[in-house]
Amino acid sequence: MNRHAIISVLFFVCLSVIAANGQMSTDALLAQLDSVIAERHIYLERKENRLSDLHKKLTSAQTDRERFDAAGALYHEYHSFNADSAYAMSALQEKLAKSIGDKNLQIDAMLNKANILSAVGMYKETMTVIDSVDESELPDYLRPYYFHTKRTVYGYLAAYATFKPEKEHYEKLTDDYRDSLLTVNDKNSLFYMLIMADQLNVHGQSQEAISMLENYININNLSEHQRAICAWTLSEAYANIGDTANQKRQLLISAISDMKSAVREYISLRQLALMLYQEGDLDRAYKFLTIAVDDAAKCNARQRIVELNDSYPMINGIYIETVRGQKKNLERTILIITILSVILVCLLFFMRKQMHRIADGRKRVEEANEMLNKLNNKLSESNDRLNEANVTLAGTNDRLNELNSQLVTSNRQLHDANREIAEISELKEVYIGRYMDQSLAYIEMLDDYRKSIVKLLNSGKIDELKRITKSTDMIDNELKSFYDRFDKTFLNLFPTFVDDFNSLLLPEEAIIPKKEGSLNTELRIFALIRLGITDSDKIAKFLRYSLTTIYNYRTKVRNKAKGNRNDLEAEVANIGLQSSSD
């Protein structure tokens, strides 16, 4: 959810609170209005997009009736946004209506033109257009619009009438057409409620207008533009009964909705600016008034420009009062600064006397420092001699430390060499003994084999001899015996080999031999690596496997390594060294 959507949600929540308890913080509404104004470019961009879509629809229309409807949609979209464009759309509608030949469409277009003419203050032209419409020919669906246009223009004339008779005359006509509007509009419609509230306000029944409108707002879902109109009407009612707090709150709600509706012809922001000027919030009031002036100029809403021009004397008066207040504050400030300046001069005079005293004291301190420096020089000479002796002693200590370091290194190298020699000697002794025993056993076995062959030859058992020579049982048994002896010999030399080897693997990948005191194929391969036989070809011949099988075994086990798989065999070669060194 983007920032604009969040602000919108918060705004609707705030409006719900208003509906629930009738109150909301004015400061919160002001902050909301500031935020909406800061993001007004978003609402204006959406407005421009809607206008662009409607223009495309007008361009792509196939018939005059479709073009008439598209121009009508553009007229209503432009009405409170750009009076010149709205007038152009009403003129286009009038031309299309004549081309179509529909009298009702012509009246609709003429009412649109009259309505926009009154909005820009061209009241004479408005009356000319209105008077050209024959009221007896009005269709029912246009009658409310006709009465609304007449009430609007007479209301403007009454507001700007200079003399009392003319003013009363136009006010009477406004009341008459207001009554006519009430008779032709649905009593449950928003338009009816607004006209009724306007009538109640005019006749001093503002409290009834407030109750009626607030009740309608609470039970109906209004658009932003509708909410703006309702809130402005409520602000007028609250102003009539002297409730400025609620008047300001409704003006804020109306202004927020006006900004969100992306309209440029409005009243709320201007009236709100005037209230803020009176309250002393000059910065915000100036900003709001500037926006209102700019919008009125862009919309070409002349009557709003006139209203804004009428507001300037009041604003100027407030500004002058503010300047006077600031001038008084400045005079007070200057007086305070003058008093402080006198005090500062006195303090400077006092400080000058104190500085003379400090100077005398500083002179005595300098004399004491001079004597202290002489003593420090003598002490420095003694320290220099002591430092020279320390340097000589330090050099001797460095030489001794260097000799000690060399001696420690030599001892460590000698210890490592002795350990390796001891290990090699032990291996040699064990394997020489094992080799001699194995050789004698093989000699005896071969002699027995020879005797059995001779015996079979002498007895003429050639078939039996062929069977024995073809059988591999003896070789298999001897190999099994040979590997058993190898396992026992190796484990006698490295009793913790299996545990040490598994500590180099992942816990779940530990290799456990089936029988205690023996090794399996994987362990035998790495036992040979521990003994220094790393060539896969030699290992394959020793274990009577193919070279590919040995390579696959080695790769498989390396993949189980706990650390770096490429360091596994180097770590296996060090098994047993640590315990030997200890």
* Strand element count: 0
The gross shape turns out to be elongated
Average the pLDDT over all residues and give the rounded result. 82
- Poorly predicted tracts of residues: 1-23
The largest β sheet comes out as:
none
> End-to-end distance, in Å?
68 Å
- Rounded radius of gyration (Å): 55 Å
Strand content: under 5%
Our count of helices gives 24
Structural class of the secondary elements?
mainly alpha
Order of helices and strands: HHHHHHHHHHHHHHHHHHHHHHHH
Query: Portion of residues in helices?
Result: over 70%
Keywords:
582 residues; single chain; 82% helix
Summarize the topology:
Blueprint lengths: L2 H19 L4 H13 L1 H21 L3 H15 L4 H18 L2 H17 L3 H9 L11 H18 L3 H21 L5 H13 L3 H14 L4 H17 L3 H18 L6 H12 L2 H18 L2 H157 L3 H9 L2 H21 L3 H7 L17 H10 L5 H8 L3 H12 L9 H6 L3 H5 L1
Written account of the structure:
The protein is mainly alpha-helical and 582 residues long. 82% of the residues lie in helices and 0% in strands. The protein is built from 24 helices and no strands. The model is unreliable at 1-23 (pLDDT under 50).
What's this model, at a glance?
With 582 residues, this protein is mainly alpha-helical.
